UniProtKB/TrEMBL annotation:
InterPro entries attached to this UniProt entry: ATPase_NBD (IPR043129), GspL_cyto_dom (IPR024230), GspL_pp_dom (IPR025691), T2SS_protein-GspL (IPR007812)
Protein transport as UniProt keyword: yes
Boundaries of every GspL periplasmic domain copy: 214-365
Listed name of the protein: GspL cytoplasmic actin-ATPase-like domain-containing protein
GO term, biological process aspect, one: protein secretion by the type II secretion system
Key word Transmembrane helix present: yes
Sequence similarity: Belongs to the GSP L family.
Membrane-topology annotation of the record: Single-pass membrane protein
Regions annotated as coiled coil: none
GspL cytoplasmic actin-ATPase-like domain boundaries: 36-145
Localization annotation: Cell inner membrane
Length: 368
């Protein structure tokens, strides 16, 4: 599990402070401490710059929820909604309500600049209001956090006294609340939160979390599909052509056997019978490239998973030499039997494993 580091946007002129979750709770890191690489960095942003809203929504997709939330809170904002950025909480109430947090785009830009300047540009931006437990009222000195009418609010202590008094009555809090350290308390609450609300959504998402625009791949995908179809058609045509050549070779072999032995019944393998009748006294006629390649392509088509890598024809020897890949060891024997069924002579060479593929050599035809 990655180490989680917490910090908060410092006040103007103040230094960054960092704490981390340790085996014994929240631990304060010393000033200028080197932050561990790969840590989960969480930056709390002040609720005085954020407003929280309860919105009822049934949408499930994050992009759709964000779009609906922005329109749902439009009447509650004092500024145009297009100047605001919203983040939707993952937790959903039984009434289908969710908390939606809104912040100005100007504040977002300032916070992101601050993160980049501090060297923590990939950090999450979490509103402090989102980790406030229900019915809790806390004083951080620079602001107070409380729950009013079912939603968290931040209270600026510099507001007029009559406004502060009215808000205090709304919260039902004691008039004198003991101040506590904001960073330590927020980190402690965040450790118990099932999931944090992150303002780094949509256009502000970290590069590793940005959604992929599939429309960029439409043209390359269409070209790839066209090439694949063309290659498939060419492969089918080649196999069919080789099958026709193989059938022609079989017919020619049968004709030669019938001419040599007119009174003999036609054997199942005329070519093998012709070779056997010649014995060792005579030399078999050499096969040409068309015959040997037809036999090879036909055998490859009959051997599932076999694929031709390269071939070379020796005209003097009448021999076709090929390198193939097989789905497994032993498949070369299946291909050898397919070649032998045509009456053509075949020799298997070395079979080995190269880059995870079973590769083998063979030769077809040649002088006996």
């Amino acid at each position: 599990m990655r180490t989680r580091i917490y910090t908060e946007i410092p006040a103007s002129g103040a230094e960054w402070r960092f704490v981390r979750s340790g085996p014994h709770g929240i631990e304060t890191l010393p000033p200028n401490a080197t932050l561990p690489s790969g840590a989960d960095m969480v930056v709390f942003v002040p609720g005085t710059e954020v407003s929280a809203h309860r919105v009822r929504m049934t949408a499930k997709r994050p992009a759709e929820m964000t779009r609906l939330a922005a329109f749902a809170i439009e009447d509650e904002l004092a500024v145009p909604v297009d100047t605001m950025h919203v983040a939707v909480a993952a937790a959903q109430e039984a009434s289908d309500h969710r908390l939606v947090y809104a912040v100005s785009r100007q504040s977002m830009a300032g916070w992101l600049d601050a993160l980049d300047s501090a060297g923590i540009g990939a950090a999450r931006l979490v509103p402090d209001l989102s980790v406030l437990p229900a019915s809790t009222h806390v004083d951080f000195g620079s602001r107070q956090l409380a729950t009013i009418s079912g939603r968290p609010v931040a209270i600026d202590p510099y507001w007029p006294s009559d406004v502060m008094a009215a808000l205090m009555r709304e919260t039902g809090a004691e008039p004198n609340i003991q101040q506590t350290d904001s960073l330590t308390q927020l980190a402690s609450w965040a450790e118990n939160a099932p999931r944090l609300v992150d303002f780094r959504q949509g256009e502000y998402a970290r590069p590793s979390e940005q959604s992929i625009n599939l429309t960029r791949f439409r043209l390359p995908a269409a070209l790839a599909a066209s090439l694949f179809l063309a290659w498939t058609a060419q492969s089918v045509w080649s196999i069919e052509k080789m099958k026709q050549l193989t059938a022609g070779l079989d017919a020619e072999t049968a004709r030669l056997y019938a001419a040599a032995f007119p009174d003999q019944p036609m054997p199942s393998n005329p070519a093998a019978a012709l070779r056997a009748s010649e014995g060792n006294a005579s030399r078999s006629p050499t096969a040409d490239f068309e015959q040997t390649s037809a036999v090879l392509y036909g055998a490859v088509a009959e051997t599932p998973g076999a694929s031709l890598v390269s071939l070379r024809y020796d005209r003097n020897m009448g021999e076709l030499r090929a390198t193939l890949t097989y789905p497994a060891f032993g498949a070369d024997q299946d291909l050898k039997q397919a070649v032998e069924q045509t009456g053509m002579r075949v020799n298997l060479g070395d079979t080995r494993l190269e880059d995870g593929l079973v590769v083998g050599d063979l030769s077809i035809g040649g002088r006996s």
